[in-house]
Amino acid sequence: MVAALLASLTAVSVSGCFLSKEVRADRKAGFPMTLKDEAGREVKLATRPQRLVSMAPSNTEILFALGLGDKVFGVSNFDNFPPEATKKEKVGDAFNPNYEKIVGLKPDLVLAVGTAQSEIVKKLDGLKVPTFVLQASSLAAVYDEINLVGKITGTAAKAQEVVGVMQAKEKAVLAKVAAVAADKRPKVFWMLDDQLWTVGPGSFINDILVKLGATNVATKTNQAYSQYSMESLLKDDPDVIVIGSSSPDTMDKVKKLNGWSKLTAVKNNKVYTVNPDLVSRPGPRLMDGLEAAAKVLYPDQFK
């Protein structure tokens, strides 16, 4: 009987030590914690999340970059990177979420995009699903965002490492661009589609153009996203046009726009395409987007 009692006490002691290690690890990572997301909401987490759902490709790329791929159980319909993400359960997207699937995955945390007033945020709050909102609008905000995700997932050290690599690449690209004379820096129009939607202040693509020393002709709109008219585009007459569209036939469509052939950028064969996934997702590959943009704006610096 004594031997059985001792064995029982030993088992409890070992189990207690194991649980204590988990608790100590969580406490070392800052759990339990309360953090404000980018919508200004306070999000409370008692322990490190083990089941994650991402509602945007950028969020998914951040999670995988932080080594959390095995903890990602659901992703948006648009996720295509890394390849492993395409094998995860699809749960709709920020505008058309499948709430039944999301709840069914029993997530400890959903990474969403939007604001506190976004329908998806209000709905998930109502369903008592822990939700953290991300909404970066500048390169600096992307760095902060990655560190924030690192903190709330208990991977702060890895997040700092990812940010460090990105910052090193940014520094290297900007060093090459710095050698370009002021009179060689182009006026640019960045096209999102064949309807002449473009980017302005408040978008991180505009931030990319500013960092690269280019003049974004759409700055005067004072809007993050706006639609240009061909009349306005002809008046501004940019030196370079960059098309960052996910539609493969955008180039063919813009060639048919009335007045397109009169643009200086078109006459000088200065119309380029950039992979939209690299520049439209505020995540770890954004510096690849910065480099891609720099190469089309200043090709001589990257020969």
Descriptive labels:
4-stranded parallel sheet; Rossmann fold; 12 helices; alpha/beta; 303 residues; 5-stranded parallel sheet; globular
Structural topology:
Layout: H1 2-28, E1 33-36, E2 42-45, E3 52-54, H2 57-65, E4 72-75, E5 89-90, H3 99-104, E6 109-113, H4 119-126, E7 131-134, H5 139-152, H6 156-177, E8 187-191, E9 197-199, H7 204-211, E10 215-216, E11 225-227, H8 230-236, E12 240-243, H9 250-254, H10 264-267, E13 271-273, H11 276-280, H12 286-297
Parallel strand pairs: 3-4, 3-6, 4-5, 6-7, 8-10, 8-12, 12-13
Antiparallel strand pairs: 1-2, 9-11
Structure notes:
The chain has 303 residues and is α/β, with parallel strands linked by helices. The protein folds into two domains: 31-135, Rossmann fold; 179-302, 3-Layer(aba) Sandwich (Rossmann fold), CATH 3.40.50. The chain is built from twelve helices and 13 strands. The strands form four sheets. Strands 5-4-3-6-7 form a five-stranded parallel sheet, with helices on both faces. Strands 10-8-12-13 form a four-stranded parallel sheet. Strand 6, helix 4 and strand 7 form a beta-alpha-beta unit. Helix 5 (139-152) runs antiparallel to helix 6 (156-177) and helix 6 packs parallel to helix 12 (286-297).
